[in-house]
Amino acid sequence: MNKAYGIILCILIAISAMFLSQYIVIGSIAIAIILGAIVGNTIPLSDKFNPGITFSEKTLLAIAISLLGINLDFNVLLELGFQTLLIIIVSMIATISFGIFLSKKLKFEQNFASILAIGNGVCGSAAIAATKDIVKLDKEKSALAIAIVNLLGTMGLFVLPIVGVLLGLNDTELGILLGNTLQSVGHAVAAGFSVNEAVGQSATITKMGRILLLTPVIFWLIWYTSKKHSLEKAEKKTKLQVPPFVIGFVLFSIIATSGVLPSNIIELISEASKIALILAMSAIGLKISFNAIKKTGWDAFVLAGYIFKFQIVLSIILIAFI
Questions:
Q1: How many CB atoms are closer than 10 A to CB 296?
Q2: CB-neighbour burial class of residue 73 (10 A; exposed 0-12, middle 13-18, buried 19+)
Q3: Going by C-beta distance under 8 Å and a sequence separation of 6 or more, which residues neighbour residue 262?
Q4: C-alpha angle with apex 129: 319 to 37, nearest 5 degrees?
Q5: What is the pTM (predicted TM-score) of this model?
Q6: Out of 40, 167, 233, 264, which could bridge 286 as a Cys pair, Cβ 3.0 to 4.6 Å?
Q7: Which residues, in sequence order, are CB contacts of 289 under 8 Å at separation 6+?
Q8: How many Cβ atoms sit within 10 Å of the Cβ of residue 25?
Q9: What would the DSSP string read from start to end of 216-260?
């Protein structure tokens, strides 16, 4: 019962976010964070809200990430074709590597930079939510990363179709460009179908291919952070710790790929994961401090912008030569 106040507040924010997402293109997840931050920074909340907010931020987020795996049917990879899959893999590895490299050159926090790179390189908000706890990124920076990635995706939604047309890309190539660069499924689908049906289908299948690679990215990040931690501590051996939500994520993706569940159950679990994620983001928003964001906000946006531009240019080059 002591969690009820905070959970109800998160539900109200989540409902508002889902309603507003019908009219605002940045999506319900980003809107939930923004609304939560506005409430948390303008309305004094008593301590009775804290247990429910913490539950939503941690437990519901872990559940949401686990359930997200139900959207990953690895059979989709067979539909991509070798060339498209190669473009996705090369650009994803290069984008994440570029983000980490650039952060070192600019002396930017590497954990934050890696999350910005993964958010750009893989699948936006879901990728950030699934990886932020692995690198132990605090809630303000996690929320800021989601907001920045969604903003860049929204900008790209309007600009990239024009860029592709000006470059003379055919429908399939333009769909690959959109699906391989725009951060969320919503961005890629909206941009693709705004051109025509063929571009929309190509963008959607390419985007799904990127999402499927979130699983290996998660395990690489676990290995990378463990290795980094062991070097910092000068230890010979460091135990590779896999968070429970990652195990759940992989199990649900295996279930989706196996085809053992009917499509209506898959859709129900998928919708549950979306709602749980919006609730969790509402809670994260409530715990954001605007003062903390001011310290790193602009630098983070500039870094993410460079990463996004690199990803776009590289994708265009790969489409031309592969």
A1: 16
A2: middle
A3: none
A4: 115
A5: 0.75
A6: 40
A7: 41, 140
A8: 14
A9: HHHHHHHHHHHHHHHHHHT-S-------HHHHHHHHHHHHHHHT-
Task: Give φ, ψ of 43 to 5 degrees.
Answer: -115, 120
Task: Judge whether 34 and 306 are in contact, CB under 8 Å.
Answer: no
Other beta carbons less than 10 A from residue 163's beta carbon: 16
**Sorting pLDDT into bands at 50, 70 and 90, what band is 182?**
very high
User: How far is it, in rounded angstroms, from Cα 131 to Cα 128?
Assistant: 5
Sign of torsion over alpha carbons 166, 26, 74, 214: positive
The rounded distance, in Å, linking the Cα atoms of 301 and 119 is 13
The residue among 53, 41, 55, 13 whose CA lies nearest residue 278 is 13
**Which is nearest to 69 in space by CA: 282, 269, 280, 281?**
269
Coil, strand or helix at 265: helix
Domain residues of the chain, as ranges? 72-272+291-321
From 313, 297, 290, select the one nearest 151 (Cα to Cα): 297
Mean pLDDT value across residues 179-193: 85
- What does the pLDDT look like over 257-308, one tens digit per residue? 888 889 899 999 989 988 998 998 898 888 877 776 677 788 888 999 999 9
Instruction: Kindly indicate the confidence band of residue 193, based on its pLDDT and cuts at 50, 70 and 90.
Output: confident
pLDDT(156) > 80: yes
Angle subtended at Cα 236 by Cα 234 and Cα 242, rounded to the nearest 5 degrees: 100
